[in-house]
């Protein structure tokens, strides 16, 4: 049977084959890890659609192909468990040995490109790129006039090499040996995407950061009352994040302009809140999967959604659709004890909120005209907003609302 | 925004500055009561009177001599040379006197004056009234050289030229006088020496000036729709100071440069830009730099011949397509 490039999400048209886990001739079990693919957003492991023997690999590691393209041919002849009505023409072993002697089409296509023309001249920029990246021009296909190698030909090749090599770098980065007292860790895809996005965000949006101090007493009471039962029932701890998320959704009803995108010279304000949650991948990168329509969920539903998304993110199982449509982002750095963080806006959104550590602190409260020193769980929440879209007063009023909701809402009633 | 013609923007720009600063005066041939032979200064005489808006005898040397003296003694004159070709008549005053006074007096004498002039071809005026001579000024140290392509830039750059403490050569392209465009309401001023990327492109950068800007834009549209070539267009707006930063950024991005100028081939401004880019961004180039120019000939007055001589949309389109492929 044909092994196809799977649909990686509704809006994704192509993907890069990063790693083959089986060679031609190797036996494959159904659902066994067969290959890995990546897009600019995610990396995904794909299991074998059926059992059999790898007959032919048509798309090499590092190549980018469209969804639905044939990646490989799997001979199911050796696996009787897979029902198929297709006739099996020949014993599979013969098939395999036959194909081992054939060059796969993808390989021969590049091999026949004739680049030996001594008259071929390289333009300055191609010379520079070839020298910088230590390439052999004979191995670069030219798309220009008379087969001349253009800058874009070289860039396309480099891109291909990069995507092929970074997956290895991803695996081996921490293990590579030191040379001359230092080691070079190539940016993997997720680092490159992050780097590009952060620079773009900072250069696109004038960031302003504002922090508020929030008293989490009411949330804390619910957590201590119901936390043990929750953990037993749900299988994960009840932390502060779902409460903050719910409060943000509530506050957005009154301050909708923070739940928006900046497009061209206008602000596109959304009715529902698609809440992105920043998730750290054990120091190997950052992703921000989205809880679709978080505004319609209870704190409990949000808590479950966060747990599911975070688990899938850490298991490298997010799909591109998990990143779509975010309208507001929360980044939770509190577990490391940070006092505050100044986050970078997740483009093209208007604002991002960082929640940091919540610790017991002495707080002065007023009661019947008298000041009392009490101990309260307090944390600083910091919002970065895009000053093109909204102003400080609006952002501050929104933060005050979030604070007010966290401090005064009847959270006992919100949790079973 | 108000929609103005290129010629209305001239009067608008001068009026804005005359209202703002009473030391601004305006002189030239037939510029006052007649409103200019190109009708670019209509209304200024009525508004500001004969002391500040003065008709002069038919003597370019007298116009610029008077303007230079006025500038040295505290006024901010705007002088019109009716056709830029006539700059040759008074070139000593421009090149040897006006351009050098600040330097030769160690800054004791400044020369805040603007020489406005109708430049370029396309109007069937023949070899002595159609030349594009902005390159003459570009090669004289001490002159700033501005040539706008839109009504908004006419007004904004003219205002900047009048406020500039040094002499500015201001080239209005006469075939653009009837063209229209939006001009911001109220006071409008642009910065001299900043080019404008008027169209983003990824395959090739076309650098143009004045009347060649709309032609380059039209050619870029055709390149995209007919040949799939993404051509960016840079409107230089001024030759001195020259915005090499913008040019370099575009060359780094597209690795291909085409200049489109009305100057005759030899020593046109495109040659200078080609030289700078070849020297400073050689390692970014993926194609020889291409110059599209008027041939090295006195410009013919016959319409078919003049159209053939000046860079046309068709010529820009074909040359770029051929070069890029």
Description:
The complex is a heterodimer of chains A (416) and B (325). Chain A has 416 residues and is an alpha+beta fold. Chain A has helices at 92-100, 105-111, 124-132, 151-172, 189-204, 217-234, 241-254, 299-314, 392-408, 411-414, and strands at 2-4, 14-20, 27-28, 33-38, 43-47, 52-57, 64-66, 70-75, 207-215, 260-263, 266-269, 275-280, 286-287, 290-291, 328-332, 351-367, 370-386. In chain A, strands 9, 12, 13, 14, 15, 16 and 17 form a 7-stranded mixed β-sheet that branches. In chain A, strands 1-8-6-3 form a 4-stranded antiparallel β-sheet, covered by helices on one side. A 4-stranded antiparallel β-sheet of chain A has the order 5-4-2-7, with helices on one face. In chain A, strand 10 (260-263) and strand 11 (266-269) form a beta hairpin. In chain A, helix 7 packs across helix 8 and helix 7 (241-254) packs across helix 9 (392-408). The longest helix of chain A has 22 residues, at 151-172. Residues 79-116 and 168-175 of chain A have low confidence and may be disordered. Chain B has a 7-stranded mixed β-sheet with strand order 3-2-4-5-7-6-12, with helices on both faces. In chain B, strands 9-11-10-13-14 form a 5-stranded mixed β-sheet, with helices on both faces. In chain B, strands 1-8 form a two-stranded antiparallel ribbon. Chain B is globular and about 60 Å long. In chain B, helix 1 (6-20) packs parallel to helix 7, helix 8 crosses helix 12 (313-324) and helix 9 (244-254) crosses helix 10 (269-280). Chain B has 2 domains: 2-183, 3-Layer(aba) Sandwich (Rossmann fold), CATH 3.40.50; 196-324, Rossmann fold. Chain B has 12 helices and 14 strands. Chain B is α/β, with parallel strands linked by helices. In chain B, 54% of the residues are buried. Chains A and B meet through helix 3 of A and loops of B.
